[in-house]
Specification:
single chain, 199 residues, Rossmann fold, 6-stranded mixed β-sheet, two-stranded antiparallel sheet
């Protein structure tokens, strides 16, 4: 029987990585073009994946939460989905954890707020994101929350693009996935089934 961690890894490997065909430049980035890209909203919006990833998170953090309660802050946008998943799964584990999100930039209208949801300066914050790359987003948002007066107690991500990022312990590292199209075809004998909508 496949455990939850392996089930989630396989789901991501088969459905949540867009792999560009060799020689085609379909994924522009600041550094040029990438050959592959994680796309985890597909997973986080899948009920079975959401339940399993939430259970894996609380297996790791439930004891810590009971000793020192924290609130969860998701980095916009993938981390926002993740924060909601973790909060809801916490309820199934009889844990009433608060959750909110921090935006990439303040709104330019209305309240012009950086934070969405209800956050408390009195409760430590565990900062989460779906994917961590260089760690720039997490570090930027840590500093921003710190400047607002929040105390950060840790960081967590589902997947890491690099094999290690200081202070962040993702559930999965990039080496656990088949990142390139030719290698995927070689390993599985089929083309990947990317489930995202590209418009």
């Amino acid at each position: 029987m496949v455990g939850d961690r392996e089930w989630c890894r396989v789901f991501i490997d088969h459905h949540c990585i867009y792999r560009s065909p060799p020689g085609e430049h379909l994924l522009p980035s600041k550094a040029g073009c990438n050959a592959w890209q994680f796309y985890l909203p597909i997973a986080l919006l899948n009920p079975e994946f959401a339940r399993k990833i939430g259970d894996l998170f609380w297996e790791k953090f439930a004891k810590e939460y009971l000793k020192n309660p924290f609130q969860i802050c998701g980095c916009e946008s993938g981390g926002s989905l993740l924060a909601s998943v973790l909060q809801n799964t916490g309820r199934r584990h009889h844990l009433r954890v608060g959750a909110f999100m921090i935006k990439k930039s303040a709104k330019t209208y209305g309240l012009k707020n950086w934070i969405e949801g209800v956050a408390s300066l009195e409760v430590p914050v565990l900062l989460v994101d779906d994917v961590v790359g260089s760690g720039k987003t997490i570090k930027t948002q840590w500093k921003r929350l710190n400047d607002f007066g929040f105390k950060i107690c840790g960081f967590w991500a589902v997947a890491g693009v690099k094999n290690s990022v200081a202070d962040v312990e993702p559930l999965f590292n990039a080496v656990e996935f088949v990142r390139f199209l030719p290698e995927y075809r070689l390993k599985y004998g089929i083309d990947p089934e990317f489930r995202g909508t590209i418009v």
